[in-house]
Specification:
Elements lengths: L7 E5 L8 H10 L4 E7 L11 H11 L3 E6 L7 H7 L3 E5 L6 H9 L4 E6 L17 E5 L14 H14 L5 E5 L7 H7 L3 E4 L1 H5 L3 H9 L2
Helix pairs in contact: 2-3
The structure holds D-xylitol-5-phosphate and zinc ion.
């Protein structure tokens, strides 16, 4: 396996109390998490609506942390400018949401931010292997997208292993992120399978000691 960088932890603020967003962002900063995960939902690709570019921009500005936009929206290409303009450092769109992922990735390449694709639990991970030369990150969903607080799909571990093997065979230092139901009970298995970024929402905000929780996800 190609030497992977230390494990990154990204915190999803989807489930937070948005009336307390300032406090939430302080909690995330103090936890020493690496980044914030912005779950963008349009009510069409997923049966839920969250927020758009202007709130994303507020979070980027207020957080002082790198922010990744996870676009769970149809025709994501139409929203790239809004989130690049909001100041995110990474943008991930769903392979299931566009007919032309290569064209979408080419659009993102011009923005200079990190770019990647997200893959639903029922989608074959082999479907993104042709894209590996064009992405920085693949986000493997370990729940059906649309809501926080769902149970982790154990089948995700095999997908992580398959994807890590494919990237290693191709000599690509791919960041493999896992998103949905990530907590203390599955983090070590995910790291061992080859994941190098863990996204957590509910488990983070339920943790009695958020900094310790982040360290536990990192395996340190
Ligand atoms: C689900 C989102 C995830 C989710 C993570 O559609 O993409 O980021 O909010 O939250 P938990 O950790 O609660 O599953
Ligand atoms: Zn997400």
């Amino acid at each position: 396996m190609i030497e992977q960088p230390r494990i990154r932890v990204s915190i999803s603020v989807l489930g937070t109390d948005f009336a307390e967003l300032g406090h939430t962002l302080e909690l995330v900063r103090l936890s020493k998490a690496d980044s914030i995960h912005l779950d963008v939902m349009d009510g069409r690709f997923v049966p839920n609506i969250s927020f758009g570019g202007s709130i994303a921009s507020d979070i980027v500005r207020a957080s002082g942390l790198p922010c990744c936009a996870h676009l769970m929206i149809e025709q994501p290409e139409g929203a790239f400018d809004a989130f690049v303009g909001a100041g995110v450092t990474e943008l991930l769109f769903h392979v299931e949401a566009t007919r032309y992922p290569f064209r979408a990735l080419e659009l993102l390449k011009r923005s200079g931010i990190r770019r990647g694709v997200a893959v639903n639990p029922a989608s074959q991970v082999e479907s993104v292997v042709p894209l590996l030369d064009s992405v920085d990150t693949v986000l493997l969903m370990s729940v059906e997208p649309g809501f926080g607080g769902q149970s982790f799909f154990p089948g995700t571990l095999a997908k992580v292993r398959t994807l890590r093997s494919a990237a290693d065979r191709a000599g690509i230092p791919l960041r493999i992120a896992v998103d949905g139901g990530v907590d203390a009970s599955n983090a070590a298995a995910l790291r061992d399978a080859g994941a190098d970024e863990l996204v957590a929402g509910t488990a983070f905000f339920q943790a009695a000691d958020p900094p310790a929780f982040v360290q536990l996800l990192k395996g340190v």
